[in-house]
Amino acid sequence: MKKTKKEIIKDIDDFFRNIKTKTPKEVKKIKKLAMKYKIPLKEKRKLFCKKCYSPFISPKIRIKKGLKIVECKSCGYVSRWKIK
Ligand SMILES: [Zn+2]
What are the boundaries of each domain within the chain? Predict the structure, then answer.
């Protein structure tokens, strides 16, 4: 049975609501799904490491020069986002 785009969006929202209980494998899968259906993850992208797909559970966060810097505890990858 094929899901509608609306259902997929709901699945993705539900997934990210419980992101902290997810595995990197599941995060990767949901990201692929979103890309397939061209669903922008927007702020949700900030909930996991883009390198190893581990959910950020209690990451090290620093604020510097208008940037939010988050270090992944699993792989050490540092993500930077502009603070709006
Ligand atoms: Zn990582």
Answer: 5-82
The pLDDT tens digits of the residues spanning 16-33 come to 999 999 999 999 999 999
d(C-alpha 19, C-alpha 55), whole Å: 6
- Distance between CA atoms of residues 48 and 76, nearest Å: 12
Closest to 79 in 3D by CA, of 44, 34, 58, 48: 48
State the distance from the centre of ligand 1 to the C-alpha of 20, rounded, in angstroms: 14
Cα 34 to ligand 1 centroid, rounded to whole Å: 20
Question: CA-CA distance, 30 to 32, in Å (whole number)?
Answer: 5
User: What's the CA-to-centroid distance between 23 and ligand 1, angstroms?
Assistant: 12
CA 58 to ligand 1 centroid distance, Å: 12
pTM of the entire predicted model: 0.87
Rounded to the nearest 10 degrees, how much is the dihedral formed by the CA atoms of 38, 42, 46, 52? 10
